[in-house]
Amino acid sequence: MLxxxxxxxxxxxxxxxxxxxxxxxxxxxxxxxxxWLAQGRSLARTVVQAIVALPLVLPxxxxxxxxxxxxxxxxxxxxxxxSLGLHHLAFTFEGILIASxxxxxxxxxxxxxxxxxxxxxxxxxxxxxxxxxxxxxxxxVIFPLTRGGFIVAATLTFAHTLGEFGVILMxxxxxxxxxxxxxxxIYDHTEGMNYAAAxxxxxxxxxxxxxxxxxxxxxxxxxxxxxx
Amino acid sequence: xxxxxxxxxxxxxxNPVLFALMVLVFALPSHASAAVRxxxxxxxxYALDDIIALYRAAHPNADIEVVYGSSGRMSxxxxxGAPYDIFFSADIAFPERLHAAGMTATEPAVYALxxxxxxxxxxxxxxxxxxxxxxxxxxxxxIAQPAHAPYGLRAQEALxxxxxxxxxxxxxxxxxxxAHAAQMTESGAAQVGIIALSLAKFPTLAEHGYHLIDEAxxxxxxxxxxxxxxGGSKPEALAFADFMTTPEAxxxxxxxxxxxxx
Lengths: 228, 262
Hints:
The complex is a heterodimer.
Chain A: H1 6-37, H2 43-57, H3 60-71, H4 76-83, H5 93-119, H6 122-129, H7 134-145, H8 147-162, H9 166-172, H10 182-191, H11 195-223
Helix pairs in contact in A: 1-5, 1-8, 2-5, 3-9, 5-8, 5-9, 6-7, 8-11, 10-11
Chain B: H1 2-13, H2 16-27, E1 36-41, H3 45-58, E2 64-69, H4 71-79, E3 86-88, H5 93-100, E4 109-114, E5 116-120, E6 141-144, H6 150-162, H7 165-168, E7 172-175, H8 178-186, E8 192-196, H9 197-200, H10 203-206, E9 210-212, E10 221-227, H11 229-232, H12 235-243, H13 247-255
Parallel strand pairs in B: 1-2, 1-3, 6-7, 6-8
Antiparallel strand pairs in B: 3-10, 4-10, 5-8, 5-9
Helix pairs in contact in B: 3-13, 4-5
GO biological process, one term (chain B): molybdate ion transport
Organism (chain B): Salinispirillum sp. LH 10-3-1
Keywords (chain B): Metal-binding, Molybdenum, Signal
């Protein structure tokens, strides 16, 4: 029943590569951002919080459309790259990676912010008074106490990137092996009335999404870090 | 009053702005659906708009709405009960499949033959040929997705017949339909696109030249239409379908570079 051709495997590879790098980049970017957001309330924090949450509200095609303009040869980033002798980022893996990082940002930042909020200031202050440096404080105190938040952030980011569609459709150009991800391939199958192929791929993604959420909720029960 | 109490409780729990929006949305009268709803292939985007404008001039009360997209998507949607009354496909194969599935009120009929062209926003496309596409100076070429967009499939056939398919394959980017491929080219992100002649003739795109691709290089783009089962019971839908066969409508189709059947 679940037969996968070369096109499917290629889309799998692109998709998982995209999910992996997006998760990696977002954990690095979102940790300091979430820490800063958890440090209190101010106008600046509220503004940043709203910007981070934008992809939850905006249609992905809006984001994809603007990214195509900005990363393309006439956009600010694309034209800068071209003038440096490099290529613009529309229709490239790097381009859809940038889009994914922006698009999945809230799914990394929000669980981490909540985990840091739950942690409170006390453990860090104690560690600080005992003479622990910033790096030591993070790896010996903050990270072990909030690791549930990190696992949830990583899992949600990965799963959300897996389901990404509109942004990549607009910006990616569905190049096999480069920007053609599973969701776009499923879309092509349904458009081409190739329902059997669409079924087997969709079923697999459905199972994967369920397992991911199951994992997230199991971790959540154990650590009670995030309200979903 | 229990309803008021419920509303008050709801409003305490919801964000007040969201609540105000909800009230506003429910208070607005909903729009009645259009009398005739058309699903049309993206290559018709400009020609059909002009034809509908002509029709409206003659029938001021006509209530017509049109949605453009890829022919494959439209047929999948109609097959699954989408509320379209007429379907103008870029390939008669799709209306024929709907006909076979018993979803249509009329026999599929040819309304035009389409042509494909090379078009560019940054290069002089008029002096380009398909062979030139394998040159290193061209990095990205946009076509519609051959898997479900007829114009994309014909572009693929033309590239294969010219013998450059292998050489250009790594440069291809795929639009969801022919209008998307044209947009990718217009943005400059793809230097060249293989798009519908009917799109290249639209004023904003017509500022740049095009190279007409020899029709011997690909199967004909036999564009067919059909009135759906839903539209069959609507005199307005059948009237508009008839209008497509009038000399006025033909004149518009010819102006956009379509070839008329017979």
